[in-house]
Automatic annotation (TrEMBL):
UniProt cross-references to NCBIfam families, sorted A to Z: lytR_cpsA_psr (TIGR00350)
The Cell envelope-related transcriptional attenuator domain, residue ranges: 94-265
Annotated region described as Disordered, given as residue ranges: 346-401
Protein name: LCP family protein
Organism lineage: Bacteria, Bacillati, Actinomycetota, Actinomycetes, Pseudonocardiales
Domain of life: Bacteria
Family: Belongs to the LytR/CpsA/Psr (LCP) family.
Keywords: Membrane, Transmembrane, Transmembrane helix
Amino acid sequence: MVFAARTGKTLVGLVSVAVLALTWFGQYFLHELNTGLATTKVFEDNEVHAVPLDGAVDILLVGMDSRTDEQGNPLAREVLDMLHAGDSDGEKQTDTMILVHIPQDGRRATAISFPRDSWVELSGGFGKHKLNGAFVYAYNDRFRTLQQRGVGIKEAERQAKIAGRQNLISTLETFMGKPGMIDRYAEVNLASFYEVTKALGGVEVCLNGPVKERKSGVDLPGGRQTVEGVQALAFVRQRYDLPNGDLDRIARQQAFLSGLARKVLSRDVLTNPAKISDVITAVKKSVVLSDNWNLVEFAAQMRGLNSGNIEFRTIPVLGPATIGGADVVRVDPAQVHAFVDGLTTDATGAAGTGTTPSATTPPSATGTTPAKRSPSGTPANTSSTTTTARPITGGEVACVN
């Protein structure tokens, strides 16, 4: 079976739990964290490219539209119905892509969102397409090749997923102008929001007004409120009837993740061993991590992080367009290069003092990040009008559409 490269149902990556929850939990639950996790080999050399406390760590968080848990078990029909997930229709879309940059002292983190419909040059020779096609084009290509060689379906799917993940990493690194930058990979599926938010007892969010939309199943009042389970997924999954389309959905995702950071790093959670254990169990059901990830070292590095030092940003975009009958988001790679530079270049000997770009105008480049692997692909695009979103931090309850 080959997954179709087309727009599908949406999912934001709750993989931030795999980043934020482990920051403190790891010190007390190291055995539990290092056993039972699904892993994938996405880096060819399988090295730990940035050693904690000796260099910045850059994590790609990916939300996958999948109807199985991360152990490969299908989600129950009643769970899919409850989550308004529908049928998969053979789709395998990376509907959320967030780069989390953590300087060497581990006391702050910057999460940069990439709209799934960004029109970019894909690695692997697949040409220009939406960013969320980077995984599926490579997946399909590898799967077909392996099937022609007589490889069994299960093994072909496993290898095809690795090819898709590697192509997505390469595409994003080229798009950012930072080949070899990404050190870690984390991926989740539909079950994450239900499982993790139930384990946490909900996450606080804020809406500018009441929302009700049939396809996502969202039905929430305006104002500050706590969401969990089905409505947590619906909150971040709504795609239709939003004033600014996918950019509003990204703002929802960031507002939810900032609330998640506050909850995960709150005293109520950190002093409750039973709740911590429930969260870890939920994460294991729905998260895949790159197999070069030393969680013990990572937990030690992140010990000083607090929710107020987590900032959520979105790359600058040029606006919507229709290309080949598809609705896309136009982007200028040169502006994206400068934007990412400004957020991820940390001053030598003073981690945490990197330049932060303006939220309304394209930033100037402040430096470069040394390559850790060889580059792949060369994107190109130009325009003169840029829009960027206001940053959201983990220390606030941001009201969104």
